[in-house]
Amino acid sequence: MTIPKIVAYQLPSVELMLENRVNWQLDPSRAVLLIHDMQQYFLNYYDTNAEPIPTVLANIQRIKSQLKPLGVPVIYSAQPGDQTPEQRALLQDFWGKGLTADISQTGIIDKLKPEQDDQVITKWRYSAFQRTELLQIMQAQQRDQLIICGIYAHIGCLLTAADAFMNDIKAFFISDAVADFTQQDHLMAINYAAQRCARTITTQQLLADATELTTITETDLPSNKQQLKQLIAGWLGVTSDELEDDDNLIECGLDSIRVLSLLDQFKTVGKHTSLIELAENPTIAGWSALLIAE
């Protein structure tokens, strides 16, 4: 038995999606983007010119291009070719021998080729956490959110989301950036994720959440030291009472994306402070003296 030829289908509409049980908020400083098994072998079972593939590919490209500049690491999972029967084990019973060791099968499709600073992990089982270094990579970078896109939604993508949940990692299951065998399988996957182990959202929702979190409007700019402390405390996930004026904000975990966003917005009101100046005294007291005239 092998993967069936996949007939074109339309992505499930938002109206068919069940309500999420959680309302986790994406934080780019805590997230990793997983592009799951987008290898030529698996795409060969689709007509790649027919839905859902064109939309899914475009959405994955959008997600990567907009989240990577926000500091979100990109990890690809890819299965190896010519696995031995011992390596495949029970996968052999369900799906046959799998990929051959040929780049035309094992390679990531051209439209989503990994860049030099992206990571590729070798994947052996449905879940991208099983027998891989994914969990260790995330823990080393102190990241506990995983954005999942790719194929197939009801197999590897869903089991990876469930495994993330069991490792205390918040999974974001992108409903229009995954593809499946059928619309029914696709809908089952996104609804199970929404009800049991993840937050299921669209590409548009994901990118809106990411942009909202990393953008400060002029009306949001702090006008005194206490407001600055409250803003930064919120970014760090602590209360303003827990943050001292002389705490080193970089050591506390404040990421550079938010610092740059803060600088850009202060420039709109005539405050031209550099990142180097902020780095010389990365404290509430130091930044207040540079940015706020009280």
TrEMBL record:
Keywords: Hydrolase, Phosphopantetheine, Phosphoprotein. The keyword Hydrolase applies. GO terms for molecular function: isochorismatase activity. The keyword Acetylation does not apply. Binds 1 phosphopantetheine covalently. It comes from the Bacteria. The modification O-(pantetheine 4'-phosphoryl)serine is found at residue 256. It catalyses: isochorismate + H2O = (2S,3S)-2,3-dihydroxy-2,3-dihydrobenzoate + pyruvate. Residues 222-294 form the Carrier domain. Pathway: Siderophore biosynthesis. Its EC number is 3.3.2.1. Its cofactor is pantetheine 4'-phosphate. This is isochorismatase. It comes from Spartinivicinus marinus.
